[in-house]
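User: Please run a holo structure prediction.
Assistant: Happy to. Please share the sequence and the ligand.
User: Here you go; the ligand is 2-deoxy-2-amino glucitol-6-phosphate.
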Amino acid sequence: MCGIVGYVGNKSAQPILMHSLKRLEYRGYDSCGIALAGSDLEVYKDVGRIDALATKLNSNGCSIGIGHTRWATHGKPSRINAHPHTDCSGQFAVVHNGVISNYLELQTQLILEGHHFSSETDSEVLAHLIEKYYTGDLVSAVKTALTYIKGSYAIIVLGKDTPYIVTARYENPVIIGVGYHENIVASDVPAVLDYTNKVIILKDGDIATVSRESVKVCNNGREQTRNCNVISWDINEAEKGGYEHFMLKEIHEQPKAIAETLRGCLSKVEPQVNPGIKIPDNIEDVLLLGCGSSYHATMIGKYVLELIVGIPTRVELASEFNHANPVLRKTWTIGVTQSGETADTLMALKKARQLGSHTLAITNVVGSSVTRLVDQCFYTRSGPEISVAATKTFITQLMAFYLLALSWPGVDYKYKYGLIQDLGRLSSKVQRLLNHQAEIAKQGANLARFENALYVGRGINYPVALEGALKLKEISYIHAEGYAAGELKHGPFALLTPQTPVIAIAGLDSTREMFLANIREIKARESPLLAIADERDTEIDKYVDCVIRVPSTEPLLSPVINSVALQLLAYFAAEARGCPIDLPRNLAKSVTVP
Ligand code: AGP
């Protein structure tokens, strides 16, 4: 998730572009750049944030330009990988937000045709494709170029001598702020609100020509009318997309984060999965490492790898692994860290490497420290996560484990086929759950009355119980513990009172009978019981006080749906308690000290 802007008007474009980009830094901030049209295209770009780039600009009064603030997906944050990208002749500059899944094929063909590429990005192919099809009309060159693109995009194109900019979108947002003798194109509303509150929202497939005086929209070769909406949000609200908190916004971004992380990995024809990870030869077992939510993701990863692949898998808390004396013979060590900066996980991976282990990092940040100390990386594509509580990054870490396991040679064809179908449907099932959050909001407000709570699950839903408890305690300050349901009778039963609600994650899998027995034992001790249950589960009501029903899915994928429901439950409990949800006390988004 990057931020793109474009300005065409009667004022100097440079300060407006820089100001609007600053407003979009929550979308990505590892590198940035602008391009201004003058006698030649002037391109300024570098690693780091907008304020740093501002110190390197020569003022240029021209009134048309484009800009970008980056969240790297392809190619580490660097000056050469920063946007805008230009073509070989320096006639066109392009900024792009999205992922081009067929960029390697296009690049290979263009290089054969004599084009010279300078960056490691997927986005640069756009500039060269436009150059290839340019015969004097920039709009039709962009149109033709886009017919070759597979993936998602929001782009703005600037030509050296054209008094307009061209923008287009497919599966990524583009809005146009309509002003007085000026127009501002951007990824999102915060970039334009200081200049206008009149906004046109482009639809998928739209290509718009934006000049100082007009906005012309085409789709499928036909001119389109797009409404001009008046935005009533203030800047703060706009950055959160109208949500109260970044956490709720990020919870609602999960259907997209799942789709983006799966993009290009699932073949539509064959039940083939290719996450671009090379499984080392002759490994005998796998070691998974992480902290906090990432550790909980590794616990689910263990179930997935052992069930699908059948490879022995152990999980270790990274902070504890640093004190252990592990034997890592033919072990593949996989470290999970969304930020890529967590000191305990970095130390643990370094140790595993020193012990001769192959290493893979599952991370959300291209160019982060972890990417420089491991053999391979898999990037979850959640975009930047602002709220301290991990939500979308946790869910896309689970996607990484499903992809890794299903890409392993020798997995049963029929079983794999079914799971791949279910994986492809997960994004819309999560969306269905989010559309019905009202019931969860009610249960959250009810939970807010308590000072203690227990979460229980069995099998693959045991780590889901741990993650649910972590979410509640870190944002609502309610003391919550997650337990394997079978463990309660060995001590925690002593905590059960009418003041200690229990949240039970009820799977429709092989744990069912034993889980219902545990539920009956909890009920007998008068703790309020709330179940998270599959919508097909008609029996659970008999055993609990309230049920949150979630869309039905393959049990192995149920941790995704159940975890989203628990994120919402914690969010609404914290909201009812008036907690500072995005910045909870005593916590940091990335823990860079051991
Ligand atoms: C989770 O909500 C917390 N923010 C925290 O437990 C986090 O998961 C942990 O610090 C690990 O962070 P990482 O994934 O960036 O390594």
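The chain has a mean pLDDT of 94.
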